[in-house]
Amino acid sequence: MGGLQGWHIVMLLVVAAAIVVVVLVVKAATKPNQRVNTAVGPGGQQLPPTQVGYALDGQPLYQQPAQPGTNIFAILALVLGLFTGILGIVFGHIARSQIKQTGQAGDGLALAGLIIGYIWLGFFVLGIMGAFALR
Question: What are the residue ranges spanned by the domains of the chain?
Fold first, then answer.
């Protein structure tokens, strides 16, 4: 029983895919964010600063609205993509759609969930095809 068996190749491909995903996520996380000091509302438009009071000299004080956080569907896409491919695909597409509309963070997480989900789907299809080929 020497040499590479089928499951060895599958494990090597899974490890290679995981390395690619980690590199993509790290690259997306280190990319500078162009929206550092601007909050984005629905539809991607920039929200104006809100007046919060007056200074001692009578000048109005403004505060930028809070930046929206990471999209929860993006986090779910990555986590569920690691365990079940189809849920990673579904949540990844939902997250990317929401991120385009709201301007939230997490596009890299959603993309990683999509990539992992499609890799799992590919393995599943190859496994089904292999099962039918052995008959």
Answer: 70-135
Alpha helices in 31-106 (DSSP H): 72-83, 85-102
- Please tell me the distance from the alpha carbon of residue 70 to that of residue 88, in angstroms, as a whole number: 16
Give the single-character DSSP code of 54. Answer: E
Kind and range of the H or E element at 52? strand 50-54
* Whole-structure pTM value: 0.54
Instruction: For residue 42, count CB atoms less than 10 angstroms from its CB and return exposed for 0-12, middle for 13-18, buried for 19 or more.
Output: exposed
Q: Exposure pattern of 13-32 as b/e (b: 16+ CB <10 Å)?
A: eeeebeeebeeebeebeeee
If 0-12 CB within 10 Å is exposed, 13-18 middle and 19+ buried, where does residue 92 land? buried
Per-residue pLDDT at 33 exceeds 60: no
